[in-house]
Amino acid sequence: MKKIILLIFALIFLAGSAIADDYIGNLSSNLYAPNSTSNPYGAGSPYNPNSITNPYGQYGSPYSPYSATNPYATQAPRLYDNQGNYRGRLSTNPYAPDSISNPYGRYGSPYSHDSINNPYGAGSPFSPNSPNNPYGSGLIIIGE
Q1: Which sign does the torsion angle of CA 144, 49, 115, 73 carry?
Q2: Cα dist. 112→106, 120, 121, 130, 131 in Å?
Q3: Is the pLDDT of residue 138 over 60?
Q4: CA of 114: how far to CAs of 68, 75, 88, 138, in Å?
Q5: Domain residue spans in the chain?
Q6: CA 126 to chain centre
Q7: Is 61 strand, coil or helix?
Q8: Distance CA 77, CA 105 (A)
Q9: pLDDT in tens, 71-120
């Protein structure tokens, strides 16, 4: 009986750790924020293993399925604003429906209110959540 209970707890632990998400940093043009991907000494360091600017890491490699720079990535990092609203995937895939690089999709179109490419919507340089605001916090990047 004890072995069965230990086995159940072990399976629950392994299942919980398998679906854990990684906080990568913030997609932001703020050069001084430590969590900004634009900060070369913070989250944007090419030596940081979880950075999207590290060409050898899982989130920056052009060959990784989790990468923001792989145009064929299937599980690119997700973007969220400070209120927890989903803002698409940080992907260079122009055909993925929720990619910020899809010019016809909800999160990539320059005419969509939810797109960071719209300077009057989520991409406004005056919004504190916008990655285009040089003094803002940007969008939260979560990797799988």
Answers
A1: negative
A2: 6, 9, 7, 14, 16
A3: yes
A4: 19, 20, 9, 14
A5: 21-144
A6: 21
A7: coil
A8: 17
A9: 999 899 999 999 999 999 999 999 999 999 999 999 999 999 999 999 99
Task: Evaluate whether 136 touches 126 at the Cβ level (below 8 Å).
Answer: no
**DSSP codes joined into one string, 33-83:** -TTBTT-TTTTT-TTSTT-TT-TTSTTT-TT-TT-SS-TT-SSPPEEE-TT
* Side chain identity at residue 38, one-letter code: S
Q: Give the Cα-Cα-Cα angle 114, 88, 141 (nearest 5 degrees).
A: 115
Side-chain-facing half-sphere of 34: CA atoms under 13 Å: 0
Output the pLDDT for position 13. Answer: 42
Question: Could you tell me how many residues make up the chain?
Answer: 144
pLDDT digit string, tens, across residues 13-69? 444 444 568 999 999 999 999 999 999 999 999 999 999 999 999 999 999 999 999
Q: Output the six-digit token pair for 70.
A: 């792989």
Residue in the structure block whose two tokens are 């927890």:
84
**Is 66 strand, coil or helix?**
coil
